[in-house]
Description:
Blueprint: H1 5-9, H2 42-45, E1 53-61, H3 65-75, H4 79-108, E2 115-118, H5 124-127, H6 131-136, E3 150-152, E4 166-168, E5 176-184, H7 188-199, E6 204-214, H8 228-234
Parallel strand pairs: 1-6, 2-5, 5-6
Antiparallel strand pairs: 3-4
Amino acid sequence: xxxxxxxxxxxxxxxxxxxxxxxxxxxxxxxxxxxxxxxxxxxxxxxxxxxxxxxxxxxxxxxxxxxxxxxxxxxxxxxxxxxxxxxxxxxxxxxxxxxxxxxxxxxxxxxxxxxxxxxxxxxxxxxxxxxxxxxxxxxxxxxxxxxxxxxxxxxxxxxxxxxxxxxxxxxxxxxxxxxxxxxxxxxxxxxxxxxxxxxxxxxxxxxxxxxxxxxxxxxxxxxxxxxxxxxxxxxxxxxxxxxxxxxxx
Length: 249
């Protein structure tokens, strides 16, 4: 990359917000905002949890700068925009893994990860030209361990968890796996991928995802009048690279 990693990773800092520490009002699985009367959000409560740790880097506000970057690097019709956003998202992921992969491993209960892989697209044709696979291939801290381990079956539509969404193409017996994805909305793809990895023998599977998608107008406590947008606006505006969702664990 022409830019240095630290410099490129600062491009979207004004749109980035550190993940709130675990506790009441935060989903125990995916770190989104929820009703404090429950341990997990509605989506996580209605699908299997196949991951030993989920660590988002930042919240991604719907139609905000981070959300648009996470869409444009794959879907923009302008090749220059796709490249611009991909380089900067790669730098964010690179910097985070450089500084916090050990935190993620600790949260998953391992000393380190044997290999790194990505959540594929559900559609075989799209997966063959995966923008996220290209993006992660630039990241030096994981380059020697990055391996394609899953492929889509092409048999599953929608975004919900499905044990038949992916199939393993590698023997993962006894391996600890770091799974990467760009966005967590409901988590169906990531949990489906983790299920397939575990079925192939993976001992531990942890996920790092760039953006935990959040809709501003959603009320974690219905009828309270407090929205996710209100919670986001109350968070510190300065993104702190020295910490992460599981840093203090």
